[in-house]
Amino acid sequence: MEHDAVAASLAELGNSHRLAVFRFLVKAGHQGASVGDIQKALGIPASTLSHHLARMAKVGLILQEKRSRTIICIPEYQHLESLISFLREECCAGISAR
Amino acid sequence: MEHDAVAASLAELGNSHRLAVFRFLVKAGHQGASVGDIQKALGIPASTLSHHLARMAKVGLILQEKRSRTIICIPEYQHLESLISFLREECCAGISAR
DNA sequence: CAATTAATTCGAAATTTCTAGAATTATAGT
DNA sequence: ACTATAATTCTAGAAATTTCGAATTAATTG
Q1: Residue A97 confidence class, pLDDT cut points 50, 70, 90
Q2: Fewer CB within 10 Å, N side or C side of chain A?
Q3: Domain tally for chain B?
Q4: Prediction ipTM score
């Protein structure tokens, strides 16, 4: 994962609503949650939520699967893992020399 | 570390320039680097850089120590560690059930 | 004390983000 | 076909971010 992709993903997680969405999806687990479920749980207006979800999907933080009328959102664990790895490798070089 | 503080910190790292600054400071190590050094290394105009550094300091990503005329910037490793811990604990709950 | 150096603050424009109601699309049920 | 449901797209205003030259502050040097 390269610099700008990392920055873009961190920026997406760096919004209170989107971080809440991601945390909710992680709690929901691998089967994910529908947009409507997220909306009810977090109380974000539909159009606002849709906008945030689109952004998260764009950078690869979540996956969206259409099941007839409802759309299921699934967190991309590997993507977050990549982010964490980057932060560890590139940003914690001096942590051992505490 | 609570939700909004995490979001704020991630948002700061979620800017290409600021992420570059942080990475540079980590490479610089515990003795840090002066604002001027960062400026020369990354080629960011002084006023722009100053603005970014102020933001990073505000959320606790870096520390700024004044040494006469020059200001030394030091990365806050513990802060990043806290961020990573949060992401692991709150956002990777399902990673084992891969 | 004038000049230089290091960095910040000011100010202002350009861009992006955030928000959310209204309209729209797509699918399912009656 | 009509209605209800799930979600998106459109639109537009408000707010925040980003950028950087110019002016300023603070400390050092000649």
Answers
A1: very low
A2: C
A3: 1
A4: 0.93
Strand C, nucleotides covered by protein (CB < 7 Å): 5-11, 17-23, 26-28
The three-state secondary structure class of A69 is coil
CATH of the domain at A13: 1.10.10.10
Residues in B closer than 8 angstroms to A14, CB to CB, are 7-14
Parent domain of B31: 3-88
B49: in domain: yes
| Residue A65 located in a structural domain | yes
A70 CB-to-strand C distance under 7 Å: no
> Residue A98: what pLDDT?
44
| Helices marked H in chain A | 3-13, 16-28, 35-42, 46-59, 77-91
